[in-house]
């Protein structure tokens, strides 16, 4: 029973080890490469700080040059350099500092060729998973230790952990070597600043040697990792056997471990040959063990940070100093003292105590003299919940709001109030129209009930924007469209759901005419118009504004007039309305442009057809038919009737004595007539309604 339990535990541990190795296998080489993409995206600060490095390098170069020129005055005693040669080299290296990054990028491109070539070599033996190693090790050990199952299981775990640990350390070494190359790249201006003087030239020369050595080591990372991968695949294929007839699981395992250790120490071997290679990876494994101890100490909760690392317990003064330093480093941002000086309530961003008091005092002076808050400072209030945010208002809020809401740049802002998840302001645009604006964080508020648009703040957060007033349309409008096919990209960007080939033409405030496949329809901005009763679909613009796209009006055919056209009209109508099976004697299409037309039957009755996109459903009995174009029509049946109509001549009624002469006319009487849909009604102005806050 105990053997069975022990076997289950060992099997689980070995599966965990192989799963971990599978999880990290193969992704490092593809992700890192010889470019600085990973370095720049994981550490964006180094890119922004590169300019600072260049200015620092120019300053160092200037100081070195001035000092060496000053030594010239000492004559032979100081063994000074030729001043003209010194100035010439200084000018050259000042230029190299300006082009430091392109120069390093060129070096990386040179290393790309062998790196890519090694990556592109196809090896069928590399089609493996580490799970296969587990099975092959078990088979090999079973052959050697067939009778002692517990020993075999223990040995299996030991071998797998040794293999996985050294493989993981090699991966860490690979990443560290890549980071060293990145550091050399983004600090290269400092190396160029050492090249002007003969005294400092050895520093520049050593840096060049290190760059070349590290790039060589970066390429060799591929050679080692892919070589080890091919070894794993080969072992799965032959179980460690050699073509000579020798070999075993232990020989292969020792060779694999030796290969991994050689790869980890290869920087030391290159250094022994005279190459300037950075020594990496010496303590990576211990760092992981130390991290495990820290986690263990936190879990127990009884040890202090000093005890976890084996040191003495921190004193109260030391702990307070450490807390102050870490708190200051974590909370300080640009303009934080100005921000703290103007925020009512909420939590401070800057330091506390005397330093904080002095900082807020000078921050208040700066605020009263035209200082602006950065987007980060505003975000520290706007992105928090109301119970922690505090409020920013007044002149500094007015002049700073555009730093957080970039789309308000160039507008006159007043009456601004910024608090947790909510911003209220009055805005005057370039046209002089005033608008009451409300902005609500999507993370803290539900979607507004009325019209709204979506805007993005400088910190990347999304906000619902609600506007009201004479200039409100500017915050909901789409771009001006002329109807040209050359605006296809702008149409797709503004209305992502619009069908391909749709052209748009702005015909009024909040009204767009859309054309597609020769058909036109009108779109109405929900910020300008109430939702219409007529059939429509809702098109959502990229900024979140809904547009009511009216259904395309049905297109009735143009029937011919006159008695001679009866046969033609009958055939034309049957082709147009294939689902209508009643015999038709004549067709009257004189009102087709108004969305309806009439057909007569041989018994004198008739049927009136109304376009469903223009008319509301009628009262009483009716049917709905679909024409060949897919449009639908209400069909209302009418009974035959006779009307007495007066006789006119030259525009005047004709009298028989005292009575007007009349004549009988055959007609059709319909019990109901549908009501035509009205145009969308303009939305009435009202106060901004705050959306509901999320719970």
Describe the structure.
- With 695 residues, the chain is α+β, with helices and mostly antiparallel strands.
- The chain has 22 helices and 21 strands.
- The protein has a six-stranded antiparallel beta sheet with strand order 1-2-3-4-6-5. Strands 12, 13, 14, 15, 16 and 21 form a six-stranded antiparallel beta sheet that branches.
- Strand 3 and strand 4 form a beta hairpin.
- Helix 9 runs parallel beside helix 12.
- The longest helix is centred in the first third of the chain and has 38 residues.
- It is elongated and about 145 Å long.
- The two termini are 54 Å apart.
- The N terminus is likely disordered.
For the report, how would you describe the main beta sheet?
Answer: 6 strands, antiparallel
Termini distance? Answer: 54 Å
**What is the overall pLDDT average?**
78
| Overall strand count | 21
Brief summary of the model shown:
With 695 residues, this protein is α+β, with helices and mostly antiparallel strands.
Keywords:
elongated; 695 residues; disordered N terminus; 21 strands; alpha+beta; six-stranded antiparallel sheet
Give the SSE map.
Elements: H1 2-24, H2 27-32, H3 37-42, H4 44-48, H5 50-72, H6 83-98, H7 100-120, H8 130-144, H9 149-186, H10 188-192, H11 201-238, H12 249-272, H13 284-300, H14 305-308, H15 316-331, H16 336-342, H17 353-368, H18 375-382, H19 386-389, E1 392-393, H20 395-404, E2 412-419, E3 422-428, E4 434-441, E5 453-456, E6 462-468, H21 488-494, E7 503-508, E8 511-516, E9 519-525, E10 536-540, E11 546-550, H22 566-576, E12 586-588, E13 596-600, E14 606-611, E15 623-626, E16 632-646, E17 648-649, E18 652-653, E19 655-656, E20 659-660, E21 662-669
Antiparallel strand pairs: 1-2, 2-3, 3-4, 4-6, 5-6, 7-8, 8-9, 9-11, 10-11, 12-13, 13-14, 14-16, 15-16, 16-21, 17-18, 19-20
């Amino acid at each position: 029973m105990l053997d069975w339990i022990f076997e289950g535990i060992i099997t689980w541990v070995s599966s965990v080890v192989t799963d971990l190795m599978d999880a990290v296998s193969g992704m490092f080489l593809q992700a890192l490469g010889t470019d600085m993409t990973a370095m720049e995206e994981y550490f964006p600060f180094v890119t922004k700080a590169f300019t600072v490095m260049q200015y620092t390098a120019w300053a160092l170069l200037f100081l070195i040059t001035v000092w060496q020129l000053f030594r010239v005055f000492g004559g032979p005693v100081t063994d000074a350099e030729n001043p003209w040669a010194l100035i010439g080299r200084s000018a050259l290296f000042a230029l190299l500092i300006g082009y430091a990054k392109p120069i390093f990028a060129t070096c990386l491109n040179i290393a790309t060729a062998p790196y890519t070539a090694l990556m592109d070599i196809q090896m069928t033996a590399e089609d493996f998973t580490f799970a296969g190693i587990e099975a092959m090790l078990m088979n090999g050990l079973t052959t050697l230790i067939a009778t002692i199952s517990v020993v075999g299981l223990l040995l299996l775990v030991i071998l797998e952990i040794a293999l996985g640990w050294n493989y993981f350390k090699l991966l860490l070494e690979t990443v560290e070597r890549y980071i060293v190359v990145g550091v050399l790249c983004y600090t290269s201006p400092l190396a160029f600043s050492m090249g002007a003087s003969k005294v400092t030239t050895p520093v520049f020369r050593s840096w060049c040697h290190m760059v070349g050595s590290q790039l060589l080591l970066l390429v060799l990372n591929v050679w080692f990792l892919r070589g080890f991968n091919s070894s794993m695949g080969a072992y799965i294929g032959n179980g460690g056997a050699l073509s000579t007839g020798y070999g075993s699981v232990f020989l292969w395992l020792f060779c694999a471990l030796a290969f991994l250790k050689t790869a980890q120490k290869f920087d030391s071997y290159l250094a022994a040959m005279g190459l300037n290679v950075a020594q990496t990876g010496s303590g990576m494994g211990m760092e992981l063990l130390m991290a495990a101890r820290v986690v263990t100490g936190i879990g127990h909760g009884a040890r202090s940070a000093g005890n976890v690392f084996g040191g003495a317990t921190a004193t109260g003064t030391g702990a307070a100093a450490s807390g102050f330093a870490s708190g200051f480093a974590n909370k300080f941002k640009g303009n934080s003292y100005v921000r703290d000086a103007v925020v009512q309530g909420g939590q401070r961003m800057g330091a506390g105590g005397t330093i904080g008091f002095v900082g807020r005092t000078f921050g208040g002076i700066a605020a009263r003299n035209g200082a602006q808050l950065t987007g980060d400072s505003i975000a520290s209030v706007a992105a928090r919940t109301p119970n922690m945010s505090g409020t920013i208002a007044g002149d500094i809020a007015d002049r700073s709001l555009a730093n957080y809401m970039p789309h308000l740049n160039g507008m006159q802002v007043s009456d601004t109030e910024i608090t947790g998840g909510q911003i209220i302001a009055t805005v005057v645009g370039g046209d002089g129209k005033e608008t009451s604006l409300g902005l609500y964080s999507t993370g803290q508020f539900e979607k507004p009930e009325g019209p709204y648009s979506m805007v993005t703040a400088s910190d990347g957060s999304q906000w619902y924007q609600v506007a009201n007033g004479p200039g409100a349309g500017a915050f909901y409008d789409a771009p001006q469209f002329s109807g040209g096919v050359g605006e296809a990209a702008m149409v797709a960007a503004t209305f992502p759901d619009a069908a391909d080939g749709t052209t748009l033409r702005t015909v009024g405030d909040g009204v767009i005419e859309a054309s597609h496949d020769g058909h036109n329809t009108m779109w109405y901005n929900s910020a300008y118009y109430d939702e219409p009763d007529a059939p429509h679909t809702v098109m959502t613009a990229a900024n979140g504004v809904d547009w009511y796209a009216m259904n395309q009006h049905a297109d009735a055919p143009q029937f011919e007039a006159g008695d001679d056209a009866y046969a033609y009209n009958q055939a034309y109508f049957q082709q147009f309305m294939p689902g209508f099976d009643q015999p038709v004697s004549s067709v009257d299409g004189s009102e087709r442009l108004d969305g309806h037309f009439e057909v007569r039957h041989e018994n004198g009755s008739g049927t009136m057809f109304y376009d469903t996109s223009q008319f509301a459903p009628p009262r009483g009995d009716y049917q709905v038919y679909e024409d060949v174009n897919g449009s639908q029509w209400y069909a209302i049946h009418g009974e035959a009737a006779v009307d007495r109509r007066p006789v006119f001549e030259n525009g005047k009624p004709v009298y028989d004595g005292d009575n007007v002469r009349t004549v009988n006319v055959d007609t059709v009487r319909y019990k109901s007539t549908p009501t035509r849909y009205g145009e969308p009604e303009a939305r009435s102005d009202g106060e901004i309604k705050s959306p509901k806050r999320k719970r």
